[in-house]
User: Fold these one by one.
Assistant:
Number 1:
Amino acid sequence: MVKLPVFDTSIFSPFKKQIEKEIAFALLPSIVLYELIATSIDESTLQKYDRWRRNLIKNERLLAPTANDWWGTAKAIRRLYIKKIAPVSKLKTLQNDALIARLAIKHNGFVVTMDVDDFEIIKREMQKLEVVSGDYFFS
Amino acid sequence: MPNKKKLPENDNGNGRRDYSHLPRARDFKLPEVISPELKELMEATREAMEALRLEEEKYGKTPRI
């Protein structure tokens, strides 16, 4: 079974054009939509994101974490914390990425991101995680 | 015989990560017949990406929070 790409927020700015076609095959974690919406400014942009969201749901492309996903993600971050793999300031920034990673594993996908190093940290506690850089994926 | 140094996973030996076991965007082909639902999703994606481009043009690249 072919693994499907799971898009991280970091690829949207550099690869907007390519994403338009690739959305036909990709999965989108709700965390990414959250991050895009949280920093949007214009009301018209919010409306366009809302239409996009409704179509992602209709096409079963939007992945939302369950209570178990939050639990599993918290345990992974906890292990990184206990092992002192990264400073606390870094771990704080990894919550959303770790949820994205968890959803990618759960749905047999691989993460496409510009922040490969961050996901490599998460991979230490989610060994099944597969990550590729946006530059490679869209080349 | 010298011991071979074990390379980290995803390292192809030249310092660059090896992703060759995973597909690229060009490996995925659109179906000949695109369903109305998928067509609508692609249109909505194009609109959303255009909105993102305009916001970046107006306000600069947004922070990730």
Note: Helices of chain B lie at 36-59.
Number 2:
Amino acid sequence: MVPTNYYLLLSAILFGLGIVAFVFKRNIITIFMAIELMLNAVNLAFVAFSQALGKPDGEVFVLFVIIVAAAEAAVGLGIIILTARNRRSLNVENVNLLKL
Amino acid sequence: MSAQVVIFFVLALIAVFGAVSLIVQRHPIHSALSLILVMVALAGLYLLMGAEFVAAVQIIVYGGAIMVLFIFVIMLLNAGVEERTNLSRLAFYAGIPLAVAVTALIAAAIVGSKAATALPAAAPDTLTSTRTLSMLLFTEFVYPFELTSFLILVAILGAIVLAQREN
């Protein structure tokens, strides 16, 4: 038996590492991957609570999160391809069209 | 320490190692492979908790479909090693302490809360079998479930419209 706390702490650590990656990385694709890492961390917390409370609702939510992540990946990567085509670069600092 | 706890720590170490590797690696393809490592480790943790359907979906959809899409785009755009700039050094000195603070805050809330410690240990049981999950998905959550099909349809159209070349 693994205490639920352990899963929640691992979830928090992975989420924190996701934040670090999001702030630290300059490549737009890697930043997008950091978002996926944070979504995964949240999924872990969902399943841990679902098991601890004995209710399967949390697992259904994980399925929805995965579906939304798939849709997000499809649209987001489309935007990344478009940006890379227009800017000739994957560095986020070159994507400053809306900057004042 | 029971066998389950040992398995948990092994998988948790793999997941954290993969997440750190995602940050440290300079090349996007190495970051993507590290993220796949994290996802496989998380699928193992789901199996440990007895959520076998979620584990299978995690491997197939996340590790399979989404990450293949990422690697496909990385190769399509021929993404190289990312360069360091002044702003990323600022992010290094401001971002990491902030992220550590956020993680510590969440961890302190989890450790300190009475509700979380009062929860029983996560037990692998038959309660959340695939059958129960599908019953729930098609009764209580049927409207959100149908809405997701619209979402995916819109996402497909959006991806096509965005990625097509104007002529």
Note: The first helix of chain A runs from residue 4 to 24.
